[in-house]
Amino acid sequence: MRCPFYEEIVVAYCRATPLKKMLPSGRLLPTSPCVREAYAVCPFYREMVALVAGEPAPEEAAVPAGKDREGGSP
Predict the structure, then answer these.
(1) Which one-letter DSSP state was computed for residue 36?
(2) Does pTM top 0.70 for this prediction?
(3) Beta-bridge mates of residue 11
(4) Full pLDDT tens readout for the chain, 74 residues
(5) Handedness of CA 68, 70, 40, 47 (dihedral sign)
(6) Among 7, 8, 42, 70, whose CB has the most other CB atoms within 10 angstroms?
């Protein structure tokens, strides 16, 4: 006999995010960009594509040369 609190479920997670949070697959909304073609607008997806391509991440590309993220000099 197994514990009455034991439960097996199928989960999903995003490999691109720094924190791996397991989400029950049945709880993902059909409108979620993760399960549609809209995944291309996801900031995590875009950052990973840029890293794989050897390009700066999208938010890094927007920082002018010689400036740090806060707008000051490095």
Answers:
(1) S
(2) no
(3) 24
(4) 899 999 999 999 888 888 888 888 888 888 888 888 888 888 888 888 888 888 776 664 444 555 554 555 55
(5) positive
(6) 42
